Amino acid sequence: MISAFCCFTVYIPGKFFMKFRLTLFHLLIFSMLASAQKPAPKDTFDITSHAMQFPHHYKKWGFQVSAGLSMVKPPEDLLESAIQAPLANVHLTFGLPWHLLLESDLTTIIVSNQLRAGPRISFLVRNFGIKGGWDIAYVYGQLKQSGFNNSTQAWMHYPNISFGYKLKKMAFTLKGELAIVGKVSTKSGEIEVSRSKTFLNGGTLSFYVEQRIHHNKVFIIGLKDNYVKFYWPTWMLFSTFNRFYHIPELYISWIL
Amino acid sequence: MKVRNFYVIGLLLLIIGCNKESLIPVPTSGINSFLKETRPIPESSKPLMEGIYLVTTNTTIFGDTMVVKWNHSGILFTCKNGKHFIMNSGYLDSVIFIQGYWRDGYSDATGLCNMYISGSEGGNDLLEGKPAPHIILRGAYGTDNAAPNQSLTLQYLRPFSNKVKESNFYILGHRAGGRNSDRLPVSENSIAMVRFTERLGTTGIEVDPRISSDGVAFIYHDPDINTRLTQKGLLAGDVSAYTWLQLSSFVKLIHGERIPSLEEVLTFAIDSTELRFVYMDMKSADAVPVVIPIQQRAIQHAKDKGRDIIIMMGIPDIDVLNALMAYPDYQNVPSLCELTVDDVRKVNAKVWAPRWTLGVQNDLVQQMHNEGRLAVCWTIDSPNWIRSYLDQGIFDGLVTNFPYVVAYHHYIQE
Amino acid sequence: MVLVFLSVVVYSQKNDSVTVRLNHYTVTVGAGWTHYINNLQVGGENLQKDFAGVSVKFFWEPEHRLSLGLESGYYKLFRAKGQLTDNTLGQVDRSIIPILFLIRMRIIENMHLGIGTGIALITNKIAGGGQKVVTETLSLSNFELSGAYIYPLNKHLLLGGEVKLFHFGNTEDTMYSIQATCAVRL
Predict the structure, then answer these.
(1) B-contacting residues of A 196-255, CB under 8 Å?
(2) C65 to chain A: which residues are within 8 Å by CB?
(3) In terms of domains, do B352 and B231 share one?
């Protein structure tokens, strides 16, 4: 602007020169004042209302859905190979009154599927959140192997508790849950290969980070350790082992 | 390893979550083993010790009955829930001492065990070669390497039934005795496993032949060199791409053994064991023309030594079937066919081996018997199904990763 | 580690600019030193473990802290030469081409932490013990952890450095790499 002003300092005779310089000066001042009236847009995003894993006061009658993947590394004892497999996941929350909510989760690897749902109660105090609940899950799998129709059905229980801490734009959640098998039955053709009654299957510990990725859409990255005997995505391996295994998962999800 | 590498590897623990389960060490009695001072049990005494025993202490862990059975290498006590004892024995004066360890085939539990039979509780009679109807084994077991301190007492109930004594049932150890994931102290498909397998109750083995790039037949289950089967080394990738010299030089199995050639395995099974069945589960059709002459030499060697052992070429798929049928005089190659009974007849297989999930199929098994063929099924691991197949089926053998469970349910039959 | 991570993030939150960053893509090339962590149980003596490695990454960098991308590269893991066993002379080379999906997060200005997973093609070459053999294996269980400092020279060009740790599950190989990187923002 100043350069432009200077460029206009050309020879204009007499009083017209002075008048022109004053006009430009006023235009310059006016532009500067005008632009000063437009402040940079303020980022008012707060992760609290956008998070799913982080315990907070979920919006009453409000839905949240996320879709993502878990990359899981099943034990080599079962697979006899070092492979990681993707589990597709859709997660849903539905807010209720009195700090309650419903959560539901569908995880699938096509040949093996788990649908779980359950109530939660959630509290937020300043930046700290706590959430507890009990999920019931139904597992169903079907696979044709070497000409045999194999299938499995199981009922599972997941009592769970989550602790969270939030910053303005990011939230962290630590979640622990027990895995209890209510009943599991696996068939190969007409033969029921195995059947088990209620047993404590182990537990899981997860850590999630939720933050924005694009506009105000939130992305979840999580690490989960399953310490279990029966790992439902691997039912088709017909394991007879009575051992606990650490089965890590890398979880990524996009809140839609 | 440099210290910095420890820090680096430490970072991986959260993400990678070490699923490489540590090898379960076999508890040893070490330098305090009192069996070194004892004399070997006379051969005439061994069958008199065998039979069904009542467990009178700690029945919640071991069940209420145990089968005691001598084998080529020692003595096996086996329970119905997968727990079993791998023991050695000797005597001093009139006392029979039995020492070794127990393990749970389905989990990682293990421990030491010391037992004895006093002179007045059967020891005298057994050592004189007389039946002893009131044998009592007394002793203790422990966990891991701790000294045995939990009481264990077994009381002789009865001998094996005539049905069992007269049966020619084959207990076939999968991959020569069990998988690496079964946490045995020896590697699957190794000479060490063939040496060890009878201790688990097997009377036969299933092995997995392949051929190297220069045409040497060896046994190895997986198609690639990996850390499930081998110690981490310089080679990786397709195992059949390497020469026999390369495999012998650069590869060690998980417990340190070499990959054995098929010829070594068959010779060892004939010369150094009492195994009666070898099932060669062919891993590629290319191996068929290489394996047949080895099989024939081994059969001749067994015949020369007067060994009662059958050595079968396994046919797991249509490619191997076609490769066998392309061989001149294939109908005289002793074979075991996993396909249909019609395929069994087509190739004149001596044994039919259906997958166990097809059911007991007594009608088809009877047809095979009527034609002078055997029938075994594979690979059956659940204790309930093993019992069911032995009770309701008429198979001549079962392939299993848990031969001690099959042994229990077979020998306890009345 | 989590406490350190949280502390860094909390600190950076206080200084975080309210300016919304633009949504863009970057292509990054890197080259540098790689070091193989020798855990061979057979034939691990006299192993050459240090080589050069190259990488290429394509990232989508939305306006906030997270970026998503794909990475590939070429790394030589190790070379064994000479007396490979008591009875055998020869040479063995193992190299790897990973293809990994990456998630990267800006922790503080210009500093990023990343995690990746994906597939890798492992090539093993041996000359010795009979004949030359080249085998290729596809590893389906692989992980990467990375930390990077990337400084923008101008709107489109960025320079920096990166430290990466890889683990390849099929052969249980682990290596780390320190690379200089150059990124072009599209």
Answers:
(1) 223, 225, 238, 240-243, 245-248, 250
(2) 170, 211-212
(3) yes
Q: For a pLDDT cut of 90, what percent of chain A falls above it?
A: 61
Q: Are residues B200 and B264 in the same domain?
A: yes
Together in a domain, B95 and B201 = no
Q: Which helix (H) or strand (E) is A46 found in, with range?
A: none
pTM (two decimals): 0.87
Helices vs. strands in chain A: H and E counts, helices first: 3, 11
The last residue of one of the domains, among B158, B182, B206, is: B158
Among the candidates B101, B128, B158, a domain finishes at B158
- A167-196 pLDDT, tens per residue? 989 999 999 999 999 989 988 877 777 778
Q: Which chains touch A (3 or more CB pairs under 8 A)?
A: B, C
C144-166 pLDDT per residue, tens: 999 999 999 998 999 999 999 99
For B292-307, give one letter per residue: b (16+ CB within 10 A) or e.
bebbeebbebbeeeeb
- Residues in chain A, how many? 256
Cβ-based neighbours of C119, under 8 Å, separated by 6 or more: C98, C99, C100, C138, C139, C140, C142
Across the interface, do C9 and A169 touch by the CB < 8 Å criterion? Answer: no
Please tell me whether residues B50 and B131 are part of one structural domain: yes
B125 in the same domain as B149 = yes
Give the type of residue at C101.
Answer: F
Helical (H) or strand (E) element with B164: helix B162-166
Q: Which SS3 state, helix, strand or coil, does residue C4 take? A: helix
Could you tell me the pLDDT band of residue B65, with boundaries at 50, 70 and 90?
very high
Name which of C6, C10, C18 is nearest A42 (Cβ-Cβ): C18
Q: Are residues B174 and B42 in the same domain?
A: no
Q: Does residue B244 sit within a domain?
A: yes
**CA–CA distance, C139 with C99 (Å, rounded to integer):** 10
- With pLDDT > 90 as the criterion, what percentage of chain B qualifies? 86
Map tokens 């199981």 to a residue. Answer: A154
- pLDDT tens per residue, range A24-34: 666 666 555 55
Alpha helices per DSSP H over B331-382:
341-347, 362-370
Architecture per CATH, domain C2-8+21-185, reads as Beta Barrel (2.40)
Contacts with B1 from chain C: Cβ below 8 Å = 37-39
Distance between CA atoms of A97 and A99, rounded to whole angstroms?
Answer: 6
Q: Which domain holds residue B126?
A: 30-158
Token pair recorded at residue B66? 């145990």
Query: Quick check: is B7 in a domain?
Result: no
Q: Assess whether B324 and B339 both reside in one domain.
A: yes
> Could you tell me if B193 and B258 lie in one domain?
yes
- Asked if the Cβ–Cβ distance from A82 to B382 is below 8 Å, we say no
Which of A156, B147, A215 minimizes the C-alpha distance to C22? A215
Task: Residue C124: name the closest of B215, B246, B248 by CA.
Answer: B246
CATH number of the domain to which B286 belongs: 3.20.20.190
Domain count, chain B: 2
The three-point CA angle B231-B235-B241 to 5° equals 125
* pLDDT exceeds cutoff 50 at B229: yes
